[in-house]
Amino acid sequence: MTKKMMAVKKTPNSKKGRSSNQRKIKIYRLYGINIAIEMLRPEAKWEWASNIGFTRWDDPRPQPTKKEIEELMKKIKLFEDSIDNTIWTEEQILKYAGKFEVK
């Protein structure tokens, strides 16, 4: 998975037994429009502009609605938020969340 497909957020320092790096950063690996559309319409060919929506849809199936995509993305985020025992190496944190300062 590429860096573009990752979402990252800082999380509070609440878990004991972890380094401060692992407590401050949550890396979302599944959360994103691309994953949601792939789950709703597997292997469809499409392009998306954030302010517009679909700019190209090359598939015989109907486009998923923006509401369908948003609802699925909420479910994906809830699922990923429920996993709180992921342990990242320092190299992985820098690779996927490098634009954030790791303290």
3D structure, described in words:
The chain has 103 residues and is of the alpha+beta class. The chain has one domain. Helix content is 36%, strand content 18%. It has four helices and four strands; from the N terminus they run E-H-E-H-E-E-H-H. The protein has a two-stranded antiparallel sheet. Strands 3-4 form a two-stranded antiparallel sheet. Strand 3 and strand 4 form a beta hairpin. The longest helix has 16 residues. The chain is elongated and about 45 Å long. It starts with 6 loop residues before the first strand and ends in a 6-residue tail after the last helix.
- Number of distinct helices: 4
Count the beta strands.
4
Main sheet makeup: 2 strands, antiparallel
Q: Measured on Cα atoms, how large is the radius of gyration? A: 16 Å
**Helix share of residues?**
25-40%
Calculate the mean pLDDT score and round it. 79
Q: Helix- and strand-based class?
A: alpha+beta
Number of domains: 1
Distance between the termini: 24 Å
Main-sheet strand order equals 1-2
Which secondary structure elements does this structure contain, and how are they paired or packed?
Blueprint: E1 7-10, H1 20-24, E2 25-28, H2 33-40, E3 45-49, E4 53-58, H3 66-81, H4 90-97
Antiparallel strand pairs: 1-2, 3-4
